[in-house]
# Entry
Amino acid sequence: MNTYNYQEEFNNIFEDGDDTYYLQEDPTWKITSLELAVWADEKIHEKEVKIAEIEKVADSNIEVLKAKIEKLEQWKETASKKDKDDITFFKEHLHLYHKKVIEEEKLINEELKLKGKKEKKLSKTIKLPYRDLTSKVQQAKILINGKDTTSAKDDEAFVAYVKANNPECIKTIDEVKWGEYKKTLKTSAVNGKMTYIDDAGSPLDFITFQELDDKFDWKIKLD
# Structure
């Protein structure tokens, strides 16, 4: 397998005259004039155009690959459906067979019990060449108003009953509605700092204003 020569591509960038790398490596370089600002703006525009071209090519290829993947997924489902259905069929009948074996063994054990003889161990596992059939007793599933315990946590009738009889088992979440609470406050300068004041006139020192630097951005001009 041929390896991709990233170093060659890296060198080609410099051959194309892209000096951005050198500028980034020079800690003393700064934009100090309107001319340099215009030049930087042009460089950004060039790279935005290049990015758009790359994304266009990539996206078109991605769409083609997505179509191929979707087709393969459809083929996979169609081609394997019959075998999957057959597996489901045989699986159901294997479980029915295993269930029948255990039921017959239970009947035999009932007869042995009546005769005062030792019961035989049930065939909880039946070994086959490619798999083992297994059987285990499952715990009863708890339902609350027909829902499992996870889904019933917010069941209206269940919550009302527990709240009335065991309120300590009800989860409560204390959360400040900041938008509404803020309307009850006033702002005033205290010791030279902007401070929130509550309706009793007390300054709230635990609420502070964090000064942020000016945000610099740009607006792209549309042709």
User: Anything to note?
Assistant: The chain has a mean pLDDT of 87. The chain is about 50% helix and 10% strand. Helices lie at 6-15, 20-25, 34-114, 156-165, 178-182.
